[in-house]
Design brief:
binds S-adenosylmethionine, elongated, 275 residues, 2 domains, Helicase, Ruva Protein, domain 3, alpha/beta, two-stranded antiparallel ribbon, seven-stranded mixed β-sheet, Rossmann fold
């Protein structure tokens, strides 16, 4: 029986109408699942976190590698399917919202994410210690995660992701790989947390990116004034933060390294209270 037939059978048996709001698009392409598992390089010792396990199409393959799976799933009906589909397996199920529940210890993350929580869950995961994540995202979000300075997709998410991890786009995943198919294509991304992060005050840097990137097409000179108003409720003399060479560049052309230096200069300026 193909995975598509199996999926339809499970949905019918449990009377499940996949919810768009919860992003219930189940993987039915065995080749895509196998590639995702291969990239994760799982061993029997690994504890793998799966976010949004659904009816268990990916879980089934994860369990077949011998690793322990901890699955987080928000929909209680899906949780019932998981329990009945894999009795006695090395599977721990947490029923709840993955952006809120307490996360267990894990070595790797393998998931076909519900697209609406992509950003929240990615940055939540990156604040934990683990070896590797292989995740399926909406294509546009995946492109933003891995985007390089100066490109269209380069955004706040690209810089924040670069700060926490090395991100690699592994392959496109066409919408036909899911049942029911979503309205957009997807892509598989690998994230490997950095052992050594750029030297910057993390909390301030993330707030600084949020304040600066709404102006990513403006020159740094103009964007800094607007970002300072958002952050501190007052303007700033940009020359007190960066040299003319940097100030004339557009925000989206600045590398993560340059942005950490600017962030540190702005943070020092704010604590010294100078104009
Ligand atoms: N892993 C399964 C697969 O690939 O076939 C299902 C993936 S489906 C794209 C996403 C799953 O995440 C759905 O089962 C949905 O109920 C669940 N979900 C949605 N929002 C969630 C949240 N905030 N926390 C945990 N699970 C969530």
């Amino acid at each position: 029986m193909s995975l598509l037939q199996e999926t339809k059978l499970i949905l019918q048996r449990y009377g499940i109408k996949p919810s768009r709001r919860l992003g219930q698009h189940f993987l039915i392409n065995e080749r895509v699942i196998e590639r995702e598992i291969e990239h994760a390089e799982l061993s029997g010792d690994d504890v793998v976190l799966e976010i949004g396990a659904g009816i268990g199409n990916l879980t089934k393959y994860l369990l077949s590698t011998g690793c322990k799976v901890v699955a987080i799933e928000r929909d209680p009906l899906m949780v019932r399917v998981l329990k009945e589909r894999f009795p006695g397996a090395r599977l721990q199920i947490i029923c709840g919202d993955a952006t809120k529940v307490e996360l267990p210890q894990f070595d790797k993350v393998v998931a076909n994410l519900p697209f609406v929580i992509s950003s929240a869950i990615t940055f939540r995961l990156l604040k934990h210690e683990f070896k590797k994540a292989v995740l399926i995202y909406q294509k546009e979000f995946a492109q933003r995660l891995v985007a390089k300075p100066g490109t269209r997709a380069y955004s706040r998410v690209s810089v924040a992701c670069y700060y926490f991890a090395e991100a690699k786009l592994l392959q496109r995943v066409p919408r036909g790989a899911f049942y029911p198919p979503p309205e957009v294509d997807a892509a598989m991304v690998e994230l490997i947390p950095r052992r050594k992060r750029l030297p910057v005050d993390e909390e301030f840097f993330l707030r600084f990116l949020a304040a600066l990137f709404p102006y990513k097409r403006k020159t740094l000179k103009r964007a800094l004034v607007l970002a300072a108003k958002r952050l501190f409720g007052k303007g700033i003399k940009p020359v007190s933060i960066a040299g003319e060479g940097l100030l004339e560049r557009r925000v989206f052309q600045l590398s993560p390294e340059e942005l950490t230096q600017i962030s540190e200069a702005l943070r020092r300026w704010s604590t010294e209270g100078s104009e």
